[in-house]
Specification:
Layout (H helix, E strand, L loop, with lengths): L1 H14 L6 E4 L16 E2 L4 E3 L5 E5 L6 E7 L6 E3 L8 H6 L3 E6 L8 H16 L1 H4 L1 E11 L1 H12 L9 E5 L12 H8 L5 H6 L12 E7 L8 H12 L4 E6 L15 H15 L5
Parallel strand pairs: 5-7, 5-8, 8-9, 9-10, 10-11
Antiparallel strand pairs: 1-4, 2-3, 3-6, 4-7
Helix pairs in contact: 3-5
Length: about 290
């Protein structure tokens, strides 16, 4: 009973901090690359979308901004996007903390590995370009992702092309990290790299191998009983971060499986939200 009361109070508090979202196209004049897909965007069950042809960001500005912004990359195996429970549903909760929250609707790779990362880099550019408008410090912008979206977030954190697109921190929910066939999520690997990627390409997107001392600080959460994306993905990534002197926090919950996002059915929702809120308030080291 106490748990459900806490959830209700949390929901009421966060609703009071919500503002009207702003949607911006990533590439109003056309994207610089193509995944070869055409047609129209598909709305699937459960708030999922597929065949994204006009990638965008939806921005939820905080009423009382603390200068921080977080860009969320929903998961979906690089085939579709879970836009609600791994995207929009978290907006009011982050806004209640003074955080400007951004949901990225990115294009699927369809074997064109560079496409999602191109969209993620453009998303962080846009947030920094609009920083003063949304009450954001351009040096306090983080990337977040779930499952395959976690792979995209970690890709931006390790493969960013310039300081302009380097995130200041990263938050990963049960992430795909490795492209090693023995560890990865098979569908994500297939959709990102194709059927027969070169060893060099496989290595490039095995992200624990791309960590260095300039990789942003991280907060990683997952379930020990995840059967879709082996926990070794997130755990090996955290180990690589620590070996390179990067601050990293890891929370492994005993049950929950995969894909819980912001859902109330996840037994440890109160724990992860509490830990993440505390980390964002006290655990992140940011420059001015």
């Amino acid at each position: 009973m106490r748990f459900f009361l806490s959830v209700i109070l949390l929901s009421l508090a966060t609703m009071l901090s919500a503002q009207k979202p702003v949607e911006l196209s990533l590439w109003p004049s056309g994207a610089p690359n193509s995944n070869g897909l055409t047609g129209t965007e598909e709305d699937l069950e459960g708030g999922r979308v597929a065949n994204v042809v006009d990638p965008s960001i939806t921005v939820y500005p905080a009423r009382q901004p603390n200068g921080m912004a977080i860009i969320m990359c929903p998961g979906g195996g690089y085939a579709r996007l879970a836009m609600n429970h791994e995207g929009h549903d978290m907006a009011a909760w982050f806004n209640a903390q003074g955080i400007t929250y951004v949901v990225l609707k990115y294009r699927m790779p369809n074997g064109h590995h560079e496409v999602p990362l191109t969209d993620a880099e453009q998303a962080i550019r846009l947030v920094r370009q609009h920083a003063s408008e949304w009450g954001v410090n351009p040096h306090h912008v983080g990337i977040m992702g779930a499952s395959a979206g976690g792979h995209l977030a970690a890709s931006l954190a390790t493969l960013y092309s310039s300081e302009e697109t380097r995130p200041d921190f990263q938050i990963l929910f049960y992430p795909v990290i490795s492209m090693d066939p023995d560890v990865t999520h098979g569908g994500s690997r297939q959709n990102l790299l194709g059927s027969n990627p070169t060893p060099e390409l496989e290595s490039r997107y095995t992200l624990e191998k791309q960590v260095n001392d300039r990789t942003p600080q991280a907060f990683v959460i997952l379930s020990a009983d995840d059967r879709a994306v082996p926990p070794a993905n997130g755990m090996q990534y955290v180990e690589a971060l620590l070996q390179n002197g990067v601050t990293a926090t890891l929370h492994v919950y005993p049950t929950g499986g995969h894909g819980w996002g912001f859902g109330d059915k996840f037994t440890y929702k109160r724990q992860w939200t509490g830990e993440l809120e505390k980390w964002l308030r006290e655990g992140v080291t940011l420059s001015e």
